[in-house]
Write a structure and sequence with these properties.
With 423 residues, the protein is mostly helical. The chain has one domain. It has 18 helices and 2 strands. Strands 1-2 form a two-stranded antiparallel ribbon. One of its GO terms (cellular component) is membrane. It holds the Pfam family Sulfate_transp.
Length: 423
């Protein structure tokens, strides 16, 4: 369970430092707008996303079992985070995340990393696609410039609210959003290593400011963001709150464990390496204990940012540490610039993120699965969209394990997730 950082330091050199620094700064430019967008979509303050990228990203790289893993907030958490905040407030989310961190640490200590392979791949595929659908539909409000009160992450409530607010459609917001989607998509296709999302969002937001377009920005919705990190503090605790948050804490821990280990598998294939799964779980645990103390969201390994790190030349965990420090430097020196970011542009970024999460190029492969696995995938996807993640994961995993017993076989642990960094 030794962190990869300690392993790589024995042969570290100035040349590696230069490569890691360039890669870390590149990934930071990708992570900046995405962390803000994920926090907003989760029902949190934009600063929470940056805090997660800084604190979570630093600890995941410093303590993790992968050479090139990049940690921070990810789209996989949006649905469960939104639900926890809606039911228990932001303090409840902080406590639930901390509890998830403790669960992950225990999982690492008992070497539970190998058990992740027992979760059927159709279940992973199903709830990932379901989350992507929820994220994409949830961003239509800002993409279309619609005005209506807060709703839950439940599409049964959100979709009718958007339809009732269709009269508030804003052509300016829609134009900014569509430009952002197309620009980000094109740059990701042509230069996946380039932080094109930040460039496109900056151009779109600058146009909104220059032409005084009637488009909502971060400042108009949230006000100015404070600089730097806040002083760490412990969230309010009670036995009743812990009991109520326990199911959500297990879901957060499960998502963090699965997403980080899938990301580590992708990284291994890209660099020809081998990650340490239990060290990775311990790092995820430490990150999810520390992040809420500073007011951050759940953190995990981010597949797209990890792949971007590799393509940008990252060789060791120092790249991930540089990425976290670069974002910290931004929050200290230039956080006021985020006030100008246009909400439709951030919505466009998350729609592209949802598209890549769903891995559309794999539908031919999915539809060629045996009938029982296809049914399991669609069942998990439907439950994720129509019910909630807790039910989807519990039912999907239970049905999947039952199918394995009936078939008297176990699927191989050698999954083939994509790097999700290209369309």
């Amino acid at each position: 369970m030794k962190p990869k950082l300690f392993t790589t330091m024995s042969s570290y050199s100035p040349r590696l430092l230069a490569q890691d620094t360039l890669a870390g700064v590149t990934v930071a430019l990708v992570a900046l707008p995405l962390s803000i967008a994920i926090a907003i979509a989760s029902g949190a303050d934009p600063k929470a996303g940056l805090v997660t990228a800084i604190v979570g990203g630093f600890l995941i790289s410093m303590l993790g079992g992968s050479r090139v893993q990049i940690g921070g907030p990810t789209g996989a958490f949006i649905v469960v985070v939104y639900d926890v905040i809606a039911r228990f407030g932001f303090d409840g989310l902080l406590l639930g995340t901390l509890m998830a961190g403790i669960i992950l640490v225990i999982g690492g200590l008992v070497r539970a990393g190998r058990f992740i392979a027992l979760v059927p791949e159709p279940v992973i595929e199903g709830f990932t696609i379901g989350i992507a659908v929820i994220i994409a539909i949830g961003q239509l409000k800002d993409l279309l410039g619609l005005s209506f009160g807060p709703t839950s992450a439940d599409l049964i409530e959100t979709v009718p609210a958007m339809w009732n607010a269709r009269g508030s459609f804003s052509l300016s917001a829609f134009t900014v959003g569509i430009f952002s989607i197309l620009g980000i998509a094109v740059l990701r296709r042509l230069a996946p290593w380039f932080p094109g999302s930040l460039l496109v969002i900056a151009i779109a937001s600058a146009a909104v400011a220059i032409f005084a377009a009637p488009v909502e920005t971060i400042h108009s919705r949230f006000g100015a963001l404070p600089a730097g990190l806040s002083i760490p503090s412990f969230p309010p605790v009670s036995i009743e709150l812990i009991s109520n948050l326990l199911p959500s804490a297990f879901v957060i821990a499960f998502l963090a464990g699965v997403e980080s280990l899938l990301s580590a598998i992708v990284a291994d294939r890209m660099i020809g390496g081998s990650h340490r799964s239990n060290a990775e779980l311990l790092a995820q645990g430490a990150a999810n204990i520390a992040s809420p103390l500073f007011g951050g969201l759940p953190a995990t390994g981010a597949i797209a940012r990890t792949a971007t790190n590799v393509r940008a030349g990252g060789k060791t965990p120092i790249a991930g540490i540089v990425h976290a420090l670069a974002i910290l430097l931004f929050t200290i020196t230039a956080s006021s610039l985020t006030a100008y970011l246009a909400m439709p542009a951030l919505a466009g970024l998350l729609i592209v993120t949802a598209w890549t999460m769903s891995e559309p190029t794999r539908w031919r492969e999915r539809l060629s699965l045996r009938k029982s696995d296809r049914a399991l995938l669609f069942l998990t996807m439907f439950l994720t969209v129509a019910s909630d993640l807790t039910v989807a994961i519990a039912v999907g995993t239970g049905v999947g394990l039952a199918l394995r017993i009936l078939r008297r076989d176990v699927e191989p642990a050698d999954w083939t997730p994509s790097d999700r960094s290209k369309l």
